DNA sequence: TATTAGCACTCATTTGAAGCGAGTGCTAAA
DNA sequence: TTTAGCACTCGCTTCAAATGAGTGCTAATA
């Protein structure tokens, strides 16, 4: 549908706009070394491209800027397939050669480096609780009737909770209780633990554990799992250095969104293979209408665990960013797969 | 040194400026009901106050605004001792009547409500690791040679860490190890655990636990405690709605500071009794030169654990904010004291 | 037929002058 | 000691003119 020349001009225009953040005029394009036709010709082509909705003017006599449709087309069809810059690659890989011990730190570091490299905001959605199943449960008495329950999941995650035991619980009882719980709850998704207790195990415990009645409530509370997950941020304030966000009000909408965990989670939890690009109004959220969000998910053994995202202005260095996310997500997947297989 | 009338005028001026954020002129002051003298008189007094450095002009023919010295004087001498507004009080107390279970949630909620009530940024420095001592240690084997170590502190805090046991560790050994560690390390500050292991306990363990040699490194790593603490934020973006921060560059300095944990920690960790007020350049940090930081610490049994702070523009509603922080910090102290005494 | 030079036109932005008004300091009268 | 009066300052707004980057259209050219 578009002629080769139109494609070429569109690409040049978008590349230039992404670089300089200023409306691109016919003269600017014609000055490029690899452009042989005159400004007038380009003006004609630009008029056509505008009619087709790929570019637009900020006012009657201004140069053109890409429209959202233009960016969409660019991302889908015009992305130059240049490999990652060597320095970017090296920086990313350096992160993985310093072997990062804790998973949390891995995410933190990834978010930080990603945001430094791109100057956009990086958001990593950590492994989600409802994807985890219980591997092992332990209850450790501390003092009086206080105890700590320890949960170990199939993903190697460990979590602890306080629990209040009833006054009269015999040592043997507690052991029996833990044994039964482990038998019955091993492999069960965390979010289902509580309902399983009520539906299946309650009766068994009733008959085997004397003090069960007294601790039923505490147990139930202990097993109640919300869909908790963790967000890791990098470069939260990077949006402030984007020229199109020099207005405080615009900035505010985005920053407040970043501070609202529920919104971010929603925006960023996009379970899909490969890489997703949401441009401007393609984002549900009003506050993100001036942003683009690139999203890649990481997985272990083919199962999506979480995602890595970049939030920046619609004018974004798509090609670089997409390459980086692609590399990073598969690298993280590999790391986690390796780590989890140890358990 | 200052006459009563000068004191009065200074107070009125600052109160007005805090409220309206605009230079205050002689006419404005004279219009108040409780002011009986004419603009000209006031102008004379203002000139004196300016000469003394308490107020300044933004340009030759503008009204006056308080200088930092003025704010300092105001905070030290002129704070009207009006009690908290009833609605503020109720809001704060509502937070404590809904009994908050987890300590983390208590801090989170406090920061949120405090920031909503004031429209400034609230930062709460959680209990610091180096103030905690070990109460009880437990090692739970999981699979293979993986295990989880659980630390319970005198403040009721629970933390867990992964540990890699050597291949050949006999069950009895582990039990003996944990017993010895508990005996020797109970009551020791977390940050000293590792050095204690090396200096005192190493030899004991050598002679009592056969596989100790193999696990020495892992143990040492497990006991290595950094000065970790946690920050809780509320209203991070509130600064954006302050009229004196409508310039993106000014905002950026502050927001980036808020994102840099080390800076914030440093800024906010001000161990002192009562309430501290740092105005503008009194803050070490350049980025906080346009801000005031009010700081109150909370404690358990007279021992400082952490602090509650508010960060806002130098023009701040000091009287309201100070009252609120005062109340909140003592309330939190009471809660924590009560909570910890259960352990 | 496709390209390009030329030209009139548009419109955001910059510049400078003029007027407004809120505020001042100073002086002289009350 | 206080206050009325007045000249003065200076930031802010408004308006008009100049600037310049860019356009669309037309007619000439390859």
Automatic annotation (TrEMBL), chains A, B:
Residues 104-322 form the Heat-inducible transcription repressor HrcA C-terminal domain. GO terms for molecular function: DNA binding. Keywords: Repressor, Stress response, Transcription, Transcription regulation. The keyword Electron transport does not apply. Signal peptide: none annotated. The keyword Transcription regulation applies. GO terms for biological process: negative regulation of DNA-templated transcription. InterPro entries: GAF-like_dom_sf, HrcA, HrcA_C, WH-like_DNA-bd_sf, WH_DNA-bd_sf, WHTH_transcript_rep_HrcA_IDD. It holds the Pfam family HrcA. Belongs to the HrcA family. Negative regulator of class I heat shock genes (grpE-dnaK-dnaJ and groELS operons). Prevents heat-shock induction of these operons. This is Heat-inducible transcription repressor HrcA. The lineage of its organism: Bacteria, Bacillati, Bacillota, Bacilli, Bacillales. The gene is hrcA.
């Amino acid at each position: 549908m578009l002629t080769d020349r139109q494609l070429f001009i569109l690409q040049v225009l978008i590349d230039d706009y992404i670089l300089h953040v200023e409306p691109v005029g016919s003269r600017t394009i014609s000055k490029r070394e690899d452009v042989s036709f005159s400004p007038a010709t380009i003006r004609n082509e630009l008029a056509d491209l505008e009619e087709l909705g790929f570019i637009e003017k900020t006012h009657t006599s201004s140069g053109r800027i890409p429209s959202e449709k233009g960016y969409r087309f660019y991302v889908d069809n015009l992305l130059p397939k240049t490999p990652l810059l060597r320095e970017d690659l090296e920086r990313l890989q350096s992160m993985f050669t310093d072997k990062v011990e804790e998973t949390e730190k891995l995410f933190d570091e990834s978010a930080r480096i990603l945001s430094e490299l791109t100057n956009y905001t990086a958001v990593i959605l950590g492994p989600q609780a409802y994807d985890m199943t219980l591997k092992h449960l332990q209850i450790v008495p501390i003092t009086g009737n206080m105890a700590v329950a320890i949960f170990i999941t199939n993903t190697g995650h460990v979590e602890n909770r306080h629990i209040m035991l009833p006054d009269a619980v015999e040592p043997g009882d507690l052991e029996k209780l833990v044994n039964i719980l482990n038998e019955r709850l091993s492999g069960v998704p965390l979010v289902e633990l509580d309902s399983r207790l009520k539906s299946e195990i309650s009766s068994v415990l009733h008959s085997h554990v004397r003090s069960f009645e007294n601790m039923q409530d505490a147990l139930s509370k202990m097993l109640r799992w919300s869909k908790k997950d963790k967000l890791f941020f990098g470069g939260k304030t990077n949006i402030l250095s984007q020229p199109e966000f020099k207005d405080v009000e615009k900035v505010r909408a985005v920053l407040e969104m970043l501070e609202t965990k529920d919104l971010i989670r929603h925006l960023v939890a996009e379970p899909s293979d490969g890489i997703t690009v949401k441009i401007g109004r393609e984002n549900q959220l009003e506050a993100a209408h001036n942003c683009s969000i690139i999203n890649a998910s990481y997985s272990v053994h083919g199962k999506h665990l979480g995602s890595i995202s970049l939030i920046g202005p619609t004018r974004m260095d798509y090609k670089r960013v997409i390459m980086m996310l692609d590399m990073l997500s598969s690298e993280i997947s590999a790391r986690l797969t390796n780590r989890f297989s140890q358990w």
